[in-house]
Design a protein that fits this description.
CATH topology of the largest domain: Nucleotidyltransferase, domain 5
CATH class of the largest domain: Alpha Beta
Structural class: alpha/beta
CATH architecture of the largest domain: 2-Layer Sandwich
Largest sheet: 6 strands, mixed
Helix content: 25-40%
Distance between the termini: 40 Å
Order of helices and strands: EEEHEHEHEEEEHEHHEH
Number of domains: 2
Shape: globular
Number of helices: 7
């Protein structure tokens, strides 16, 4: 099956857009934290034009539903809803932390991954993932928001007995509470990255095959906590 998927990641400080078309991926990214609203649509137009693909010919549009910065998540959700409604497209959504974990699976064949994004207010968005049999990131426990020192994990036994890759700016911003705490669990690599539209493409391909999609009207952002930070 040759998929055509437009993937949009705008939940973090870095905004990226990727187009999968007949096995070829075109990607653009922008590191202007407060520029998503101005940049995201031109980036979409650019990747479509690069491969001479019309929006109406896509199989689906994918996006990260959060968690992340409130304004960034809201922008991504609104753009995806507008595109899907206008071109009658299926929508595939994924957790931004899930996509980050997928990035380490794709890059290192990581089996167990810790993810942490800066949630502001001295907190992080935190997730534990493992590589499933299908090669996709699977959550070991629900994503959470917490102060680094208060993070609760489901099983310390699991942490002790596996090698963990860690990823996300949360480990850099809160090094004392995050990196120092979790290095005892044999962490084997440390990438201070953001979610990427390229990793989202990997997730979206499998979800499309499994018919795991939504209609545009069903799309909602995920903030994890009630109090959000722009």
């Amino acid at each position: 099956m040759s998929e055509r998927i437009l993937a949009i990641e705008s939940a973090s400080e870095r905004c990226s857009v990727a187009l999968l078309n007949e096995g070829e991926v075109t990607v653009l990214s922008n590191d202007t934290p407060r520029g998503h609203a101005d940049n995201i649509l031109p980036m979409i137009d650019a990747v479509l034009a690069e491969q001479s693909v019309k929006l109406s010919t896509l199989d689906a549009v994918a996006f990260t539903k959060g968690p992340g910065a409130f304004t960034s998540v809201r922008i991504g959700t609104a753009v995806v809803q507008g595109l899907a409604l206008g071109a009658d497209l299926k929508v595939i959504q994924a957790s931004s932390l899930e996509v980050m974990a997928q990035g380490l699976i794709d890059k290192y064949n990581a089996k167990h991954i810790m993810v942490a994004l800066d949630a502001r207010m001295d907190e992080v968005y935190f997730g534990l993932y493992k590589q499933g049999q299908d090669g996709l990131a699977q959550a070991i426990q629900p994503d959470l928001v917490s102060k680094p020192e208060d993070i609760e994990i489901g099983s310390e036994f699991e942490l002790i007995n596996f090698d963990w890759h860690i990823t996300g700016k949360g480990f850099k911003e809160y090094e004392q509470g995050m990196s120092a705490r979790f290095r005892q669990f044999n962490t084997v690599s440390e990438d201070h990255d953001f979610p990427s539209a390229v990793a989202l493409v990997t997730v979206a391909k499998q979800k499309l095959l499994k018919q795991d999609w939504l209609d545009a009207e069903q799309v909602i952002p995920v903030y994890i906590r009630d109090q959000v930070v722009k």
